[in-house]
Specification:
The complex is a heterodimer of chains A (278) and B (353). In chain A, a hairpin with a 2-residue loop joins strand 1 and strand 2. The longest helix of chain A has 14 residues. Chain A is an alpha/beta fold. Chain A has a 6-stranded mixed beta sheet with strand order 6-7-8-3-9-10, sandwiched between helices. A 4-stranded antiparallel beta sheet of chain A has the order 2-1-4-5, with helices on one face. Helix content of chain A is 39%, strand content 21%. The N terminus and C terminus of chain A are likely disordered. Chain B is globular. In chain B, helix 2 packs antiparallel against helix 11, helix 3 packs parallel to helix 7 and helix 3 crosses helix 11. Chain B has a domain of 244 residues. With 353 residues, chain B is mainly alpha-helical. Helices cover 72% and strands 2% of the residues of chain B. The chains are: A alpha/beta (278), B mainly alpha (353). The interface between A and B is medium-sized, with 38 and 26 residues.
Chain lengths: 278, 353
């Protein structure tokens, strides 16, 4: 039992506690967000915040509510209770397009690219949709395609691209909006391990100039931990741990969520006992 | 440079086709010219349909309402004032006494079509899929009933006659060309590009910040303007009009033209409007007997509708994106060349990191 108490203590050290509301001065704030579908709680009073320039990872087992949280933040899933604030402004009941106009940009789990259009057109639309004129969008997109090494593919329909290149276009389209916050839903899904360095580079390049805050979710935990300044762990719609990658990596709650109680290795238990003593 | 050439093809192709049809028409007899004029006027209406249906991907059965309102307004206001009190004694006073020129009536038709589309669009453009189709059909029904039974705004169920005829071959060709130009300019605006994004993937479009309602409303209004313009051309082509002429038959015919040609491109709409029109005219003539060189072709009355229906089904099955593949003029050719060039360039390109 002492071990479990230690875990609870350890899991809260890295960031704001899941039961405490984060400060509304944070840039992107979910405050006690609950989302229910047909009587099932997909998210239960979730508090999470992302600051500008920060990369926050969101991990959790299948069905933990990761995509639901991104959908709730971007307006694709209605919030049952709680609130979402963007730079102090309540956006809880805004339409997805209104949120995008305010600086929330996202990618989708299954691409959702405009498959009949070319790479350039896809990326340009990201800029046009937030109000840039066609001439300004062209200049911005030229830079972005150059930066993300998409120039040679610019005029190809995205349907002809490999999965990895489609992910690259997806990030480019989201970045073209010069967002304040970029929400990446499973950007590494379906990519071979060898492509992850390239994807990480693409994401970091995409936000270099704008200094956007990033919320990234992916099943590849190592990839998320490597990219993130801070990691939030969801399980059954609740935040079970939050903190820097090193702490999360050793968090037995997290291990338990992924592997079950029996799967918690001895060395992880020892790590937490040491952390508790400190 | 490649993009500029594509734009030239995109606008030049439809304009060239219209010019070619007008040129061939000018060599025909007066009776045959009437068919060519009708084809060009109908193609104008089809282009109006394309502006909304083609760019948004939302089916609408209501565009002929805008044709009807514009046709009756243009017809009434250009007809001789002296006869209105006898043929339409219950008309509102301003309709009974106001007289405008045929040219003004074309502009009025476009304006009325746009305003009517804007007002109905404010309600309808929040709908998608089947609901949008049914709701636009309801607008057509309501418009038809109001025009047919409300004697204060027109002749009711009777024919509106003595409308001055001014839509000749050149006017119909210029009118159709104006519709093409308007559709071309629109499809290169930011607004239309955002609308097309919503046609491709509505969730993704909303996710990147597109107000689907607003962009659809813009297209619906412009579509109404072009349809209204087509309606004014239509009434000045025929010299008379009945409400049944701007109802179900015209709705079905113009939609079939758009779908057969390829609803996703301006070239498809133009080819559909003109090509389908030519086949339709030929078949209708064949019902009365037509000479093909030494052959005399005569088909039973009503066969043209059956053949056109079967033709449409065949196209939908074999070429679901229409005979043009919903591509702009020569687009396929330029895309193939470009794709090949990219693939050749794509070899051994180093990537970061």
């Amino acid at each position: 039992m002492a071990f479990l108490r230690g875990l609870e203590h350890g899991s809260r050290e890295g960031g704001s506690a899941s039961t405490e509301s984060p400060s509304l001065s944070d840039d992107l704030v979910c405050n006690q967000v609950t989302v229910g579908f047909a009587g099932v709680l997909a998210l239960d009073r979730v508090n999470i915040s992302v600051n500008r320039g920060e990369v926050v990872g969101l991990i959790g087992p299948n069905g933990a509510g990761k995509t639901t949280l991104v959908n709730a933040i971007t307006g694709f899933a209605p919030v049952t209770s709680g609130s979402i604030h963007l730079s102090g402004r309540d956006i809880t009941h805004m339409q997805p397009n209104q949120r995008a106009q305010l600086g929330l940009s996202r990618t989708f789990q299954h691409g959702h690219l405009f498959s009949g259009l070319s790479v350039r057109e896809n990326v340009e639309l990201g800029a046009l949709a937030v109000g840039l004129s066609q001439s300004k969008a062209k200049v911005l997109v030229d830079e972005l395609l150059e930066k993300l090494e998409l120039v040679r593919l610019a005029h190809l329909p995205v349907a002809q691209l490999s999965h990895g290149d489609q992910q690259r276009v997806s990030v480019a389209r989201a970045a073209a909006a010069k967002p304040a916050f970029l929400l990446l839903d499973e950007p590494a899904a379906g990519l071979p391990e060898g492509s992850l360095d390239e994807l990480e580079w693409v994401i970091r390049e995409a936000i270099t100039d704008s200094g956007a805050g990033v919320l990234i979710i992916d099943h590849n935990v190592e990839f998320v931990l490597r990219m993130s300044n801070r990691v939030v762990v969801l399980d059954y719609g609740e935040v079970i741990a939050e903190g820097p990658a090193d702490i999360i990596r050793a968090d037995v709650n997290v291990m338990s969520a992924y592997l079950g109680e029996a799967g918690v290795p001895e060395e992880v238990e020892q790590t937490f006992e040491k952390t508790d003593q400190l | 440079m490649k993009i500029r050439i594509r734009l030239v093809y995109e606008l030049g192709g439809p304009l060239l086709l219209i010019a070619l049809v007008a040129l061939v028409g000018s060599m025909m007899s007066i009776a045959q010219q009437a068919n060519v004029i009708n084809i060009l006027v109908t193609a104008t209406i089809v282009i109006g349909l394309y502006v909304f249906i083609g760019n948004s991907g939302v089916m609408s059965f209501g565009q002929i309402s805008f044709v009807a309102v514009a046709a009756f307004a243009a017809g009434i206001l250009t007809s001789p004032v002296a006869i209105r009190s006898t043929t339409m004694p219950q008309l509102f006073h301003f309709l009974a006494v106001t007289k405008i020129s045929n040219l003004e009536s074309l502009l009025l038709g476009a304006l009325l079509g746009a305003v009517f589309a804007l007002l109905t669009g404010l309600v309808l453009m929040r709908l998608s899929g089947l609901a949008a189709g049914i709701a636009t059909f309801a607008v057509l029904e309501i418009t038809y009933d109001v025009i047919t039974y409300w004697n204060k705004i027109g002749p009711g169920a009777r024919t509106l006659a003595l409308v001055p005829v001014s839509t000749g071959l050149s006017v119909s060709a210029i009118g159709c060309g104006i519709a093409v130009l308007a559709a071309f300019l629109y499809q290169h605006t930011r607004s239309c590009r955002l609308l097309r994004a919503s046609r491709e993937d509505i969730s993704a479009a909303r996710g990147i910040g597109v107000s689907v309602f607003r962009q659809r409303l813009v297209a619906f209004t412009l579509s109404g303007a072009i349809a209204g313009f087509g309606g004014a051309l239509f009434v000045h082509e025929l010299g008379s009009i009945q409400s049944s002429q701007v109802y179900i038959d015209l709705t079905f015919t113009t939609l079939a033209m758009l779908v057969v040609g390829g609803s996703g491109s301006l070239w498809g709409a133009t080819v559909g409007g003109i090509g389908f029109g030519i086949v339709d005219v030929f078949l209708r003539n064949a019902e009365n007997g037509v000479a093909l060189g030494s052959l005399h072709l005569s088909i039973p009355s009503g066969t043209s509708t059956i053949i056109l229906g079967a033709f449409m089904v065949a196209v939908l099955i074999l070429l679901p994106r229409g005979v043009t593949g919903s591509r702009e003029c020569l687009e396929r050719f330029s895309m193939k060349r470009f794709s090949k060039a990219v693939r050749l360039d794509d070899q051994d390109v180093p990537r970061k990191p």
